[in-house]
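Notebook B, p. 112. Complex prediction, attempt 2.
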Amino acid sequence: MSQTAKTGPVAAPGTGAATDPRRAAHIAVRIAGTAGRRILMLIVLLAMVFAAVEILPGDAAGASAERGESAADLAARRHLLGLDRPLWARFAHWMTALPTGDLGTSARGQKVTELLADPLPNTLVLAMTAFAITVVLSLLLGCWAAARPGRPTDRIISHTSTAAFAVPEFVVSAALLLVLSLWTGWLPAVTVTGGDGKPASWTMLIMPVLALVIPQAGWNTRVVRGALADQASTPHVEAAHLDGLPLHHVLLRHQLPGAVPAIATGMATSTGLLFGGAVVVETLFNYPGIGSVLAGAVAARDTPLIAGVVICAGAVVSLVLLAADLIRYAVLGARA
Amino acid sequence: MTAVLPLAARRPSRRVKTTALVLIAALPLLLAVAGPLVAPHAIDTPVTAPFATPGDGALLGGDQLGRDVLSRVLHGGTLLIAGALLVAVVTTLAATLIGCIAVLRPGLGRAVERSADVAILLPPLLGIMLIALAWPGGGRWAVVAAAIILGVPYAVRVVAAAASPLATAGYVEAALGRGEPTPYIALREILPNLRATVLTLFGLRFVEAVYVISMAGFLQIGPQPPASDWSLMVRENASGILLNPWAVIAPSLAIALLAIAVNLVTLCLAPDTTAKAVTRS
């Protein structure tokens, strides 16, 4: 990700647009290559997840054992879960089943896909809302801070955002609960699930989303501010200042476009943190997402279920990173 | 030229501010070290009614079993901070060593780059859950080990990024020309020029470790219920937040103070370029 910050000295965005067909083909090949690399990395991650589940001590059959269960019963369930087959056979089976949408069987014997079918969309709604708000908020704050570098506004925004991204989501959630729910009574403290497995009212999304947005916006405001500062020292931005163009014009037309690739990459890398935060926030607000499923899985030591969630999260993060790659190509063209 | 900061003009005030910040950051650390010595009650015996309001010998009231909140807060930070320190020290040391060697050995450098790319796909908290659960009985150690394993690839990339311009510096090329062994060049020629980067890295790794360990504690991976731990306290007492809010506010404040203070100090002590390189990774 480090190389993304280096735009050429004369970053005139959009000039790399593919006008002649050879260049277009060249760019298409590079995009395909990037997508291929992302898929390859996802497969490596899957192998590592599988290894963590299978090679480390303890297995699903033992973890879900009832008290007073005989060794024969245990062996029977081991066989049922396929744990008595050789490691490579299990890995091959697991990997070939993945493309068909089979994430394996949980320690309790249910299909992981069935367990995740309802909660996963709920979590995606929560995380995507939080991500959208984070993008808008951090762009606004970052630009506002960068407009007058070194002034009080810049320092206040920079320090506040630095402080915000260090605080764990559950601490932010506790503060929100106290202020917005218990002291003022504006919002319901817990999410009530309607008959369709979704939150009963959209107001129940406000606090979980806020708890995710505050630390994430802190982090991404720093990224935006940093990327804009890098652009501020490039010759074409200094030239624009010397030409006497208005500050906001220079910021939005000259600084921001060059900073977009770095900003996109920075925001894409924060989606992983967003997922982790969602797990915690959902637990605290009783939101019907994968967080509550995971909390149950932790209690039951249900590793296959957790591996399933990791796969889903890894796939989503891969997609977002790929989107950031595409934005980079679109802005930088052949120079990416 | 409004974009250029008169940095030199702000130096003195910056030093005063940094000193003040260091003092603030020392507060939660001091609390964690001295806390258990001054705690008025035992952490595991009820002294008042469950979720009792402050008063009656319990300065911050009681928790869900009527145990003294103040005493539990005073005890609850020691292991969290010790664990975070351990993670930060080991990750920084490992990353510094590997990072210095990686810039001299391109093959290793590429391997590090690839493993960091893969690690980015795995949300840290989910990775820790996976490792901690696949290693039953690991407790705090499983969380610490997972935080180190998942943190090293990023950290190496930061060190390698800072060290790569040095690899082509004249004195390093001279040492290479003399035929010095790689570890010698890494430790004697490159490492001494990376002090600022390594210090910043250590600070931010510490912040990250506090974050990850307390999140794991909140999800009840790591420290188990009878133990007093700030994050565990927030989780356990969330249900009684209406009856005795202090049982949730006090440990939350402690974590927030620790994280914010250490983070601000780290970024203030760091030269601007390093802070950017580290936070950007």
